[in-house]
Amino acid sequence: MERPKDDRRGHSGGAKSHRRHLAMYGVAGGLGAAILAVGAVGEAVAMVRDARLKPKQEALAPVTRERAQAVVSEATYGTGIVIEEEQIPPVPGSRDTKAYHIAKRVFDVAFSSVAVVVGFVPTAAICLLVALDSKGSPIYAQRRVGRYGIPVDILKIRTMVADADDVEKHLNPEQLQQWLSEHKVDDDPRVTKVGKFLRKTSLDEVPQFLNVLSGSMSVVGPRPVEPDELVAYGQSVAEFLSVTPGITGWWQVKARNDATYEDGSRQRLELEYIRDRSLGRDLLCILGTFHAMFGSTGSGR
User: Fold this and answer.
1) Is 229 helix (H, G, I), strand (E, B) or coil?
2) pLDDT digits over 44-90, tens only?
3) Which one of 32-36, 95-99, 227-231 scores highest in mean pLDDT?
4) pLDDT score of 96
5) What pLDDT shows up at residue 19?
6) From the CA atom positions of the chain, what is the Rg in Å?
C-alpha cells in the first residue's frame, strides 16, 4: 500500500476549509484490518494528533460513500468507520515540523551508512558463529506493523533455535502465558548460547540499519510490533502507528525489560516519545542505548 499523500489544506493561514474524508476510529486488531481494507479500494488512512494533542485525521484522500461502504463491509469488529465533513483550523506551534523530518531522515541515512560499513566484517563474523552454534539461516526477517499499519519485514540476526515459532514445543505453561501476554519470556529456552550474548548487547538488531536505509524504519522510534500487540494501545493505537518505528527508542532506554504491557508502562513510554519527539530526545535515546548495550541491563525486545 502506498503511503498516503499529505493534504494540509487549511493548516496554513487563517482560513478554514472543509474536506470530506474517511475517518477511522479503531481499537484492537480492527484498525490494522481496516487499513488493509482501505488499501484494497485504493485509499490509505492514518490518525494523528495535532500540536494540542487533539485527534486529527491527516493525509486522508477524499472518498465516496460507496467506497466507504466497501471498507465497512471488510473491516473487522471493533472498528468504526464513518464519512464526515471536517472543518480544519490552522494548527500552530507543532514541534513535529517538516524541518524535523528532513533532519531526522538525513541523520538516519548518515548514521546507518556508517553503521553498515563499519559493522560489515563484525556482522559477518557473528553470522558465522550463529551458523556454527545452531541450524538455520543466521539472518531472518520478522513481519511487523510499520507506520500507518503497513507491514514491515525487519531484519535480525537469529538468536533462537530454527523452530522457535513452535512455542508450545519449547515453553512450559507459565512461560507460554508470559509469551502470549508480553511477547517475551524470562530465561527463554529457545535462545541459543550465541543468541544470549547478541540479545544482551542488542547486536542482533544491527541488520535493521538496512531497514533504515530503505525508509521502512528509523534509528529512533517506537519498536515495531506484531498485529496482536496493538490491542494494548487501545484508543491510542492510531497515534502509535503515526510514527516510523525505530531500532531503539525511549522505552528501551528508560525501562528495557522492566516495561510491560500489563502495567501499561511500555505503552506510556512509547506514547511519551511520540508526543514529545525531537532531535534532542533522539540523541538521548542513542546515547542511552549505548549505555544499556554495554551496561548491566538486558535488551528490550
Assistant:
1) helix
2) 343 333 334 344 443 334 444 454 444 444 433 333 333 333 333 33
3) 227-231
4) 62
5) 33
6) 20
Residue 122, phi then psi, degrees to nearest 5: -60, -40
Distance CA 81, CA 57 (A): 12
The helix or strand, by DSSP H or E, that contains position 115, with its residue range, turns out to be: helix 98-133
Task: Give the torsion through C-alpha atoms of 70, 74, 79, 82, to 10 deg.
Answer: 0
User: Tell me, what's the pLDDT at 227?
Assistant: 80
What letter would DSSP give residue 26? E
Buried b (16+ CB within 10 A) or exposed e, 169-202: ebbeeebeebbeebeebeebebbbebbeebbbeb
Is residue 289 within 8 Å of residue 299, measured between CB atoms?
Answer: no
**Which long-range CB contacts under 8 A does 6-10 form with residues at least 24 apart?**
6/58, 6/59, 7/58, 7/59, 7/60, 7/61, 8/58, 9/88, 10/88, 10/89, 10/90
Backbone angles phi, psi at 244, to 5 degrees: -65, 130
